[in-house]
Amino acid sequence: QLVAYEVKRMRAEEGNKQKILRHIKELAEKLYKNENPYPAVTMHKVQKPTEGCHLRLHQKPFPRLDEGTVQWIIDQATAKLQTAPPAVKAEKKCMVPSGPPIAAILERNGNALANSARRLEVVRNCISYVFENKMLEAKKLFPAVLRAMKGRAARHCLTQELNLHVQQNRAVLDHQQFDFVVRMMNCCLQDCTAMDEHGIAAALLPLVTAFCRKLGPGITQFAYSCVQEHV
To answer: Looking at the domain assignment, is residue 73 inside a domain?
Structure first.
C-alpha cells in the first residue's frame, strides 16, 4: 500500500523532518494495531478484606448457595457463548494496485546502486592484484576493501572471487598474499551477522581450509588457523 499510494507523499516530505516523523508515527500505529487488534481485557478486581475485619462482632454468616440457581446461571452463560459470534475478525482481502513502476523508485536509489557496484569492483580488483602479486596496487585499495566489507554484497563478492582462485589451483600463497587474504577474511567475518551464518560464513568454510602457505619443509599453515576465533 505504501508503494502504491504514498510515493508522492514521501517525495513531498523529503527534507522535512517533522512531516517524516509524523508519517512514521502513523505507520507505527497502523502496524501496532495490526499486531494487537484486540484491546486489553479489563480484569475485575476483588477487594481484599480490611485488616482486623475478622474481629468484628456483627459479622454476617456467608449465605448458603442454592444449587439450582447456580446451575441456572452457568447454563445461561453457556447458551450465550454458543450463540456469540466468533471472537476472531474475518480477514478482509483487498487488491492493492501495483503503484508506480519499480524504475521510478530505482532512479532515487541510483547513486546507492552505483556506489555498491563501485565497491564490488574495488573488492574484485584488490583480490586480482593480490593473486597477480601487484602488492603496491593491492595496498592502495585495501582500506577501501575493508570499508566495503560492511555491506553484505561485498562480503558475498569476496567469497565468490576467492572461490574462483581456489578452482584455478591458486590456493598455495606466499607470505604477503596469505596475510592479505586472511585479513580480508577476518574483516568479512567480523562484520557478519547471524543472518550471514548460513550464507557468507558457510561459504568461507571450504575456503579457509583451502588457502595455505608453506612455513618450512613439510610445514603448511592453513587460513582457518588465523580466522577460527570468530563466533
So the answer is: no
pTM passes above 0.85: no
Domain that holds residue 26: 1-31
Exposed (0-12), middle (13-18) or buried (19+): which is 126, by Cβ within 10 Å?
A: buried
In the numeric block, which cell numbers belong to residue 101? 513502476
What total of structural domains would you count in the chain? 2
User: What is the distance between the alpha carbons of residues 224 and 98, in angstroms, rounded to a whole number?
Assistant: 48
The answer to whether residue 88 is domain-embedded is no
Q: pLDDT digit string (tens) for 185-222? A: 888 888 777 776 778 888 888 888 888 888 888 888 88
* Cell numbers standing for residue 151: 555491506
DSSP assignment of the chain equals: -HHHHSHHHHHHHTT-HHHHHHHHHHHHHHHHHHH--SPPPPPPPPPPPPTTGGG-TTPPPPPPPPHHHHHHHHHHHHHHHHHSPPSSPPPPP------S-HHHHHHHTHHHHHHHHHHHHHHHHHHHHHHTT-HHHHHHHHHHHHHHTTSHHHHHHHHHHHHHHHHTT--EE-HHHHHHHHHHHHHHHHT--GGGTTTHHHHHHHHHTT-EEEEETTEEEETHHHHTT--
Which residues does residue 213 pair with via DSSP β-bridges, in sequence order? 173, 221
